[in-house]
Specification:
Hypothetical Cytosolic Protein, Chain: A, two-stranded antiparallel sheet, alpha+beta, about 20% strand, 5 strands
């Protein structure tokens, strides 16, 4: 009996803002570096503790409010790191599926 090729499994991650689960490649990773900085990780492979957010402004702003990033990364981000993340979020579409 011939066996078919199995589809490749895609890792699932949860958005820290809306708690929806989606494929790892569809989310943006935020990483706490070993130096204690918080950065956007476009490659998804940077060393450090990571958290995932949908690539839309609504989820991005929700993640920046309150203590969502603080809880997910187990660190209080520096003010300049938060400002850099906020600036990155402004370039994102307002909602899922919108264009910039």
């Amino acid at each position: 009996m011939a066996q078919g090729v199995r589809p490749r499994r895609q890792p699932q991650r949860t958005c820290i803002a809306c708690r929806a689960e989606q494929g790892k490649r569809e989310l943006i990773r935020i990483v706490r570096t070993p130096e204690g900085r918080v950065r956007v990780d476009p490659s998804g492979k940077a060393n450090g503790r990571g958290a995932y957010v949908h690539p839309n402004r609504e989820c991005w702003e929700k993640a920046l409010r309150g203590g969502t990033i603080k809880n997910a990364l187990k660190i209080t981000p520096a003010v300049d790191d938060i400002e850099a993340l906020r600036a990155f979020g402004l370039a994102l579409p307002a909602k899922e599926g919108d264009s910039v």
